[in-house]
Design brief:
The protein has 511 residues and is of the alpha/beta class. It is 39% helix and 17% strand. Bound molecules: hexanoyl-coenzyme A. The site of hexanoyl-coenzyme A has 15 residues, from α5 and β6.
């Protein structure tokens, strides 16, 4: 064979592998509305930058006639390339090849991708589309999942790990995503995630549930909180992942990427002075407030449909990425409950891992009361926020907007070891509890006009920022319109913040 013929042979073999599971299988997948693994990777990477690894890998299973089954590329495409100019590793499962199922060699390809991403200090993106453990490979398939999980854990807090559910994801296939930093789900019938599918659910519990209801994008974004972002389709999903990567550094030793900002750093917004209703029980939209403060009014919200009483989003201040946590008075009056605590704590820790400063906007009446919350463990779950904020060593700035009551106020980054700066608006009510609640306890013997007088006195003296400012518990009381420049100056002051802690293996956050 001449050298040219050898090259031709190599190209021929490559073409066969790129053809995946063949025309019929591909046509079926396209007909369902989804893209193929390579098409997805083409959308993710900057044109012409993708370098594929381990294209020629084959399985080595002989059970159930598998010795006669070809699995081009072993059902997964792996490699690295540039996303908006920065190196990213990725793997995309190919459902056309034996249902994208995960066997020993399929996993070996993903594991190598994970190891190389960790060594290179680059983010990894997984595009999942798989029937789960390859049934023919029995215990090898189970062990293979364990290899993935171990890498997920090893990389946690070192490189960003992002996963998209773009097809079925059942059984063991759900746990690698769950161990990653962010999970995207495509809002289409073909994408779903569950431990056991509708048939098993029916046989065990008798419940009848559709696969979408059990594990579709809406369920996981709204109810379970297992997914952080929802996408309309494959293209939207990949565009959103690229957007998210723009907020994240490549690894824990880097700072997040700063972009040019045309929105003036000293821009004030008079609208902020009137945004908060004068009656402290009337709701308003905290998202609107945040957008008036950040660069160009742009936020990228994580878990926007889950625990809507708290907002977690990325934004930029003078081009520098920040993570924002804010109570939303429109939902449950912004009270903290179990889901809100879980959502916020995880986001705080994510930002801290990746050197993203934290802004916390507070309008919190307290922890949500009730047996549901108490029996569900609000003490343990609420403690996560009390743990996550002091644990975070990134710059932390708190803005007390309105209600800032009790332990929930401490939970919103105001306690010792919490914020580097607290800015309080004149409308803020920093107190142990609201005046009515206080009256029910300390003025309960008073009646009528006397009781009202005491409540008014409590409101004037304690439901304000001045009692806190008097003792230096807030650094500045500011006009709402000044919020943007004040935050930007504080972030600039904190840009080289050092916050050293005693050495330990790791802490023990209440889980
Ligand atoms: C081997 C599989 C497979 C699997 C699908 N295929 N899943 N082969 N192992 N897990 C094959 C099918 O046999 C079929 O092959 C091809 O992939 C396409 O699958 P279809 O069923 O035709 O596709 P569709 O109708 O779209 O249905 C998709 C599906 C279904 C819902 C995912 O295939 C399915 O239920 N698969 C099994 C899911 C499952 O129970 N997985 C194991 C989870 S347990 P042919 O040759 O016909 O084209 C698990 C434990 C791990 O993961 C725990 C680790 C901790």
């Amino acid at each position: 064979m001449t050298n040219q013929e050898k090259i031709e042979l190599m190209r021929q073999k490559e073409r066969e592998i790129e053809a995946g599971g063949g025309e019929k299988a591909i046509a079926k997948i396209h007909a369902s509305g989804r893209l193929m693994a390579r098409e997805r990777l083409n959308l993710l990477f900057d044109e012409g930058t993708f370098e594929e690894m381990d294209k020629f890998v084959e399985h080595r299973c002989y059970n159930f006639g598998m010795d006669k089954v070809k699995t081009p590329g072993e059902g997964v495409v792996t490699g690295y390339g540039k996303v908006n100019g920065r190196t990213v590793f990725a793997y995309a499962q190919d459902f056309s090849v034996i249902g994208g199922s995960l066997g020993e060699m399929h996993a070996t390809k993903i594991v190598k991708c994970q190891d190389k991403a960790l060594q290179a200090g680059c983010p990894i993106v997984g595009l999942n589309d798989s029937g789960g453990a390859r049934i023919q490979e029995a215990s090898h398939a189970l062990r293979a999942y364990g290899r993935l999980f171990y890498r997920n854990v090893k990389s946690s807090g070192v490189i960003p790990q992002i996963c998209a559910i773009m097809g079925p994801s059942a059984g063991g296939a759900v746990y690698s995503p769950a161990l990653m930093d962010f999970v995207y789900m495509v809002k289409q019938d073909y994408a779903q995630m569950f431990i056991t599918g509708p048939l098993v659910v029916k046989s065990v519990t008798g419940e009848e549930v559709s696969s979408q209801e059990l594990g579709g994008a809406i369920t996981h974004n709204r109810k379970s909180g297992n997914s952080h972002f929802m996408a309309d389709n494959d293209e939207d999903c990949i565009m959103q992942i690229k957007k998210l990567l723009e907020y994240l550094p490549s690894n824990h030793k880097e700072r997040p990427p700063v972009i040019e900002c045309e929105d003036p750093a000293d821009r004030m917004d008079d609208g902020l002075n009137t945004l908060v209703p004068e009656s402290s029980n009337r709701p308003y939209d905290m998202k609107k407030l945040i957008k008036m403060v950040v660069d160009n009014g742009e936020i990228y919200e994580s878990q926007s449909l889950f625990a809507q009483n708290i907002i977690t989003c990325f934004a930029r201040m003078k081009g520098y990425p920040v993570g924002i946590i804010a109570n939303q008075p429109r939902h449950l009056a912004g009270a903290l409950d179990i889901d809100a605590s879980d959502k916020a704590s995880r986001f705080i820790r994510l930002c801290d891992c990746f050197n993203i400063p934290l802004l916390t906007f507070v309008d919190v009446p307290g922890y949500l009361p009730g047996t549901g919350q108490e029996f569900g463990g609000i003490i343990r779950h609420g403690a996560k926020m009390l743990y996550a904020y002091p644990e975070a060593s990134v710059p932390k700035i708190t803005i007390a907007v309105r209600k800032a009551y009790g332990g929930a106020y401490i939970g919103m980054c105001s306690g010792e070891g919490g914020p580097d700066m607290i800015f309080a608006w004149p409308s803020s009510e920093i107190a142990v509890m609201g005046a009515e609640g206080a009256a029910n306890i300390i003025f309960r013997k008073e009646e009528g006009a006397e009781r009202k007088k005491k409540i008014d006195q409590y409101t004037d003296e304690f439901a304000t920022p001045y009692d806190s400012a008097k003792y230096g518990f807030v650094e500045q009381i500011i006009e709402p319109r000044e919020t943007r420049p004040k935050i930007i100056r504080a972030l600039d002051m904190l840009k080289n913040k050092v916050d050293e802690r005693p050495w330990k293996k790791h802490g023990n956050i209440p889980l």
